Amino acid sequence: MSTPVIVGFSGSLSSASSTRTLVEDAIKRTVARFKRSSETYDLGQVGTDLGSARSLFDLSEGGRHIVDRIVHAKALVIACPVYKGSYPGLFKHFFDLLDPACLIGKPVLLAAVGGGEKHALMVEQHLRPLFGFFEAQTLATGVYASGQDFADGRLVSPAVIERLERAIGQFTPYLERPFAPEATFSGNVTPLRRQPENLAVAR
Known about the structure:
Blueprint: E1 6-10, H1 18-34, E2 38-42, H2 61-72, E3 75-81, H3 89-96, E4 107-114, H4 122-133, E5 137-138, E6 143-146, E7 150-151, E8 154-155, H5 158-169, H6 172-175
Parallel strand pairs: 1-2, 1-3, 3-4, 4-5, 4-6
Antiparallel strand pairs: 7-8
């Protein structure tokens, strides 16, 4: 099975959330522009063992498969819901399990969904520093949406759509240039850390 070029990941536990809708919309628009393969996952698909996991080896096979897809993708779209002013604890815990070197230089479109405009800086204040730690190449334009930007399960806000399109355009240097053929999924998650350093107490 070939590894998708673009992987979307929603930090919501629900597959029917506004966060998942935003990720799927971003992925659809990115695929339409660059004609690359894609897959989308959400936090709930990682598995119920995520909260007690102290390393990636503690995750189910399905959870490790998602990690493998994220690590080997050429580009990522990552969004999470705003929970009490920041990202959810399980979302952070998922990334706590990853090796610090596994996302170096990877282009990432960052997005968040909150209940209102008061959380509009969530991407800049919380998500961007997190992925800065991983030395990922976060796109300059972050995307924030609130509940009023969705209707009937769709993103409908012209302003948010325009910002999303601008962010997607920033994938151009990474997705239009030639790169090696897509890797074949081996069933192994790399790189792994058997003893995560400074791992917070499992939530």
